[in-house]
Amino acid sequence: MVCVLLSNSMAVVSPWVLKLVIDALKTGHLQYSLYQYAGAILVATFLQATFLFLMRKIMIGVSRDIEYDLRNDLYRHMQLLSQSYYNRMYTGDLMSRCNNDLSAVRMVLGPAIMYSVNTFFTLVFGLAVMGHINLFLMVLALLPLPLVSWLVTHYGEVIHNRFKDVQAQFSRISTTVQENLSGIKVVKAFGREEEEIAEFRKENLTYFQLNKHLVRVWGVLYPVVEFLAGVGILIVLLYGGRQVILNKLTLGEFVAFNTYLAMLIWPSIALGWVTNITQRGAASMARLNEIFDEKPQITDPEVSSVPSNYEINGKIEFRSVTFGYKEREPVLKDLTFTIHAGYTVAFVGATGQGKTSLLHLIPRIYDPISGEMLIDDIPLKEFPVALLRRQIGLVPQDAFLFSDTIEENIAFGMEEPSFERVETAAKIASFDAEIQSFPHQYKTVIGERGITLSGGQKQRSTIARALGREPAILILDDSFSNVDTHTEEQILRALREFRKGRTCILVSHRFSTIQDADWIFVLEGGRIVEEGEHATLLMKRGSYFDLYQKQLIEEELQIHR
Q1: How confident is the model at residue 433 (pLDDT cuts 50, 70, 90)?
Q2: CB count, 10 Å around CB of 78?
Q3: Domains and CATH numbers, the chain
């Protein structure tokens, strides 16, 4: 603000000195030499430029600082949002908001505020001096101003709505690109390249047309404001020139008045530009606020009874737990069971019976609709989320890896990572020997989503990542589906030693994986229909027996193919 005031103060000096020089030249009585007048103008212009530079440096710098903080706040908030939020949002849309919309908001916080404040003080200082020279002439020069205000207000609302449509369409384009690049193998496998190109061209054409509609409005606003400013100059020329002829206004005053009026032309034009930026920023901030207004469904208790250094033993209890995804029938219904600490249990059932959903309730990826869950006889919601998840190792069905080295991927979940722990975890997962054969061994960069690894190698990487945490509760969700039976047996043998004293929960469609479990639960229709040991369940000849027989038949058919 100080720089703006000083810059504008210096800006009004030069035209006033010019007035004094012209009037003195006309009368022939120069109070100072032309060099002194020129020096005064030079000093005033230099100081104006200096304070203008400082104004821009400070204001643009502050806008970048705020953008930095806002981006950090947004990313932190998104990390805390629940999985259910990401189930309904598109990644491309979120990426668009994190990039384009943040930049639009930064433009408001920097150039828009800077030019708005500068315009205000330029108008105040300029009009004050113009009024001092000739008040009536100033009023005439400002006659187009009400029309400028109406145009800015009217077109500002139109720009806001159209930019909102532009940003929404850009989100759709981002989503299309993100999904296609992530699933490029599927696109190529099905020969859908031309169809996807056509679909993108269609979305891009819509984005192009929406931008043209926006530019058309902005294109009208900018020149119309400039034209109205020109009308003001025309009025001053006609009336002011007449006043000079009649000797009611000196030539110096007339020139100075026009100079001040010219100073006001850019602020008038900038008003349209600032309006455009402000409306874009407002539309973008509304889109960002949709994310900020989203509240995490999984939260820490206000007052936790669990000490921050509590070590989980591993007893898990479900009491009448029901769970379902939004707008869908519950996938788990009235589940009641207990898993004793240190036990290895397995959940089996046909596809779509709720096994993965059940596993996701334990680390509170989701919360149940009703019922209660306990760990070590403590209600699950009493645990701080970070404390709970820190002691759970989850290997999901979808083996996701980061675009980093093998070592960094395995060490991802470790609080105090070390190469020894990484190597030990890889050995248990029967992956160490293969890693040693890679050109850079553990330092091998595996590409986006681990694209350079096979399906089995990805799964063993994620198993090693979970083991490296040395969790109290280990959850393996169909984690051997891409691993051959020989490697699976090696991993299971190594796990027998590792899981001693830990609670281990298995989900698998292979009975070779689960038959050594201490206890097996059979899920059907979201309910537990059978439970017991492997041999006992086979003797019952119920659902478990049917699943077992079905798998034997499938294996027999594969052998004879």
Answers
A1: confident
A2: 17
A3: 2-292 (1.20.1560.10), 316-559 (3.40.50.300)
